[in-house]
Amino acid sequence: MRIAEISSPDLRQMQSQDPISDLLCKLEALTTEIERHSPESPLPESVPAALRHGLTQLTSLAPFQNSVKLQIWKLSYRLWNACVDLFNFVRSSSSKITEEHAKLRQVSVDLLFLVVDVSGVPSPCFKCASFFYKTGIIWHELHKYDLASNCFEKATDLTSNIEITNVSDRDERRLLLDLNIARSKTAWEVSDRNLAINLLNRSKRALFGIAENYMALANQYTNFGKLLLSKNEVSAVNEALKLMSEALELCEKGLRNVKKPDETLALKELRLKTLRFMAASHLQRDEFENVLKCVRVLREGEKGGDHPSSSVLAMKAWLGLGRYGEAEKELKGMVVNKGIPEGVWVSAMESYLQAVGTSGAETAMGVFLGLLGRSHVSAAAAIRVVQRVVGDCVNGEGARVRAKLVAEFVSNDKLVALFAGDLAANQRSAMHALLWNCAADYFRSKDYEVSAEMFEKSLLYVPHDIENRSLRAKGYRVLCLCHLGLSHLDRAQEYIDEAAKLEPNVASAFLKFKIYLQNNDHNGAITQIQTMPTCIDFTPEFLSLSAHEAIACRALPVAVNSLSHLLTFFPNGKPMPTTEVIVFRTLITILIKEPGNEPEILKYMKKAHTRFSELGPECFFGTGEVGRREQNWFALNLWNLGLKSGQEKKYELCGELFKMCAEYYGVKIDGQMEGNNSMVCKSMILAVSAMLAGEKESKNTLSDNEVKHAIELLERAGKILMSGSTKTHIDDDQNTTIEPHFYFIYTLSAFDLYTRLNNTESKQLVCIKNYTNSKHFNPNYLLQIALNASEGPRSNPKIATFCLKTCISSLLSSLSPDYQTISLIIRKLITITAVHKGNADYDDDDGGGGGDDDDGVYGMYKKALRIMVGLKAGEYPVEEGKWLAMTAWNRAALPVRLGQAVEAKKWMDMGLELAGRVAGMDTYKACMEDFVSGVEKKVQSQGHL
Question: Which residues of 75-101 are buried (b: 16+ CB within 10 A; e: fewer)?
Fold first, then answer.
């Protein structure tokens, strides 16, 4: 009987039930409004609230007459149908079910539940239970599990009093099963797992031998098992296996009870599906034997149509048991099975490689090529296989072996063809990047052989078009580097030539430079250095790199050339890879390593001097302590090179080096010279000394300009010597910072230079006197000056005499006089006095005659005699004493011949007295005395006459 066919009671009879009638009218009006409402716009919030309020009022008026119950039943169905219309619209517009819709359904089913005991309606409890079930499903979808559970429980209560054996309608039978399953799912969602499983177990009573019921219940057991498996917990896996065993048992029971072939087919499929999940569960628990048992059952049921997962499960089980041969067979068998999806066998190969390692790489790639030959596979799958085989490129067991296998694999023509075309452009780039990165790792680990092979294979995945010219050129350049590392210079040359054709740039020029270096072709390397600046993308960093490479190869001329080119870019003001002072320092350090480079070093020292004169010392050397260290490095190297050149008698070069050394030591950093005045002074003194030594060595007289320049240097040095900064002033009691011999060299050089100018005798004398009055005075040094003044074409007997007399005075004042030196000075004074008549300057204390030459000479003999008086035998040099005695005696010869008896007697007495002071002259003295006696007698006889 249809609801529409139920007759409504007479309206006049309804008027007597005023409250119920009013409520029903209101509810009918609200239902009509819902029926007429457009589903495209939301229902006003007041409508569901008014319905709920009316339902509450109506509930308070129960019980009702059967006619009223029929009216409410009809009203409930109208509201339900309106909800169904709204639901269908929402489904068609892909919108979500709202909670307001569920509330309308709830009102409808609650109205029905209010009059479920109506008479005249067939199976009212099942109809009401069906409404509760469907409403509960909607609450479940909205995750309102408490409301869903309430609906399911009411539906269960409505059907619980009905004997299952009395239910004959197919839909009603299915409702009993669905209610239990729905309640179970809701209980599972609220983590009441025990209730959920209990409800599934109760559902077994409502199967009624229907295949669909068996499948529905078995599916739910399986779904719960899958959810537990996803948690990856040991206890969960155990429970999942129990649930799947239940599902499997249900399938088996269904197959025994169901006879129709079409229905048994679906059950068999579900049974196999459950078995596969059980096998996965066993695999997750490392129960590999059980996995294989499941696979055997699966294959028996599949009857030759091997499911893709069966081979994967079997392979993983064999791997787990360590039986790699069986696993390999399963993997190779997958090639034959055309039904296996690409993702499945790629995943299988990844598992195989992970378990077997390097030894399985060849098998896996062979399988891939087999698959490539029988069906279409994607380039992405090939990338996954290569990525898994390569793994950690450099590290790991058998890394080089895997790399070699990958190189062979990716060079296969079929595989390369798989990546051809525009559609595979992204995958082609990915494969190139994968191979390139692997090659780069080997390059960094200096395994150039494997690196070169991998780089070569990566080029197979670079198209030969204009857009990829740069990428191919880059590949050729890096291959050039690999072969350079392997010392395959011819191969390296081939690759870099190809790279230069595709993309001529400075990187290619630099690599050609490296090849020339390794071939020891220095001229070719220098030519490449000159070529680099002509490249469009040239930067000065490449010259710096070239210098480093040349130094590493000990090609010092090439390094010098590179650095000298680099220096030409600093005046441009462009950003540079390093500071100018470092380039100069590096270049000079290189030149110092090879002997004979002093002229080149001097050239760059002069260039550096020009640069810091232009820029300022702080800009060139740096400020503070850093700048001072840089400055002193240049100055100290000049000093050492100057000393070395002087020792090698390269006096001209020595002089230039010391002049430049003085310039560097004279630089002020932050306004300070940091105590370098003494080094400036010493450098200038040695520079002039080298000029004079060079003149003597080459016998080429210095020009007037050179003499003036040398005098200027000495005058600058003299100012420093006399200044307080070096503490060399004659009145300064503090220690000097300049060694005494430098003062002597200065004085000697100044004396020599002043002799070359007119009217410079006074300067010479002042210079000598300054030295004799200084703390640096050394009579031995002054003697050297005296000897220089007494000899040569520019001798000065007056200065020589002054120096010699000052030396004697200094030596005699010593606590331990050096009589050997004193005797030599006396001889030299006698010689000078005798030779330069009228030029000697004598003091009265020395026995001088005040201008008579013979008296001056006699005074020197007399002074020597006074010195000898009181000395021990042999203390005064015997030879010099003999020379004095004999020369004094011989000086009487001329007066004797001239008849100057007095004069002759004076010299003979001097000789006789000197002979008496010298050991070993007794015989000579006796002869002298006899001769003197004879002379005296002769004089007396002449006087008597």
Answer: bbbbbbebbeebbeeeeeeeeebeebb
Query: Is the backbone of residue 403 left (phi > 0), alpha (psi -120 to 50) or beta?
Result: alpha
149, 136 in Cβ contact below 8 A? yes
Give one DSSP letter per residue of 76-139, joined into a string.
Answer: HHHHHHHHHHHHHHHHHTTPPPPHHHHHHHHHHHHHHHHTTT-SSSSSHHHHHHHHHHHHHHHH
pLDDT of residue 849: 36
Tell me which residue of 390, 382, 381 sits closest to 358, measured CA to CA.
Answer: 390
- Please state, in angstroms and rounded to a whole number, the distance separating the CA atoms of residues 681 and 676: 9
Phi/psi for 744 (5° steps) reads -65, -45
Whether the Cβ atoms of residue 389 and residue 352 lie closer than 8 Å to each other: no
Helix, strand, coil percent values for the chain (each to nearest 5): 75, 0, 25
Cα gap 477→6, rounded to integer Å: 94
What is the total residue count of the chain? 945
> pLDDT tens across 736-758, in order?
467 888 888 888 888 888 887 76
Residue type, 574: K
Q: Both tokens of residue 488?
A: 């395959």
The rounded distance, in Å, linking the Cα atoms of 171 and 178 is: 10
Beta bridge partners of 669: 672
| The token pair that represents 483 in the structure block | 């072969």
* Cβ neighbours of 781 (radius 10 Å): 19
**pLDDT tens readout for residues 84-99:** 887 777 666 556 667 7
The single-letter code of the amino acid at 443 is F
Phi, psi dihedrals of residue 322, rounded to the nearest 5°:
75, 15
- Residue of 860, 852, 906 lying closest to 883 (CA atoms): 860
d(CA 22, CA 864): 166
Burial letters for 386-420: b for 16+ Cβ neighbours within 10 Å, e otherwise? Answer: bebbbbebbeeeebeebbbbbbebbebeebeebbe
Residue 649: DSSP 8-state: T
* Phi, psi dihedral angles at 393 (to 5 degrees): -50, -50
Cα–Cα distance between 600 and 446 in angstroms, integer?
A: 38
Cα radius of gyration rounded to whole Å, the chain = 61
Nearest to 522 by CA among 553, 483, 489, 487: 553
Using an 8 Å Cβ cutoff, are 861 and 888 in contact?
yes
Token readout for 128 is 């009401």
794: amino acid identity, one letter: R
pLDDT tens-digit profile of 42-53?
A: 677 777 777 777
Sequence-distant (≥ 6) Cβ neighbours of residue 420 within 8 angstroms: 428
388, 345 contact by CB (below 8 A): no
Residue 672's DSSP bridge partners are: 669
Place of tokens 């209610």: 179
Quickly state the pLDDT bin for 725 (edges 50, 70, 90): very low
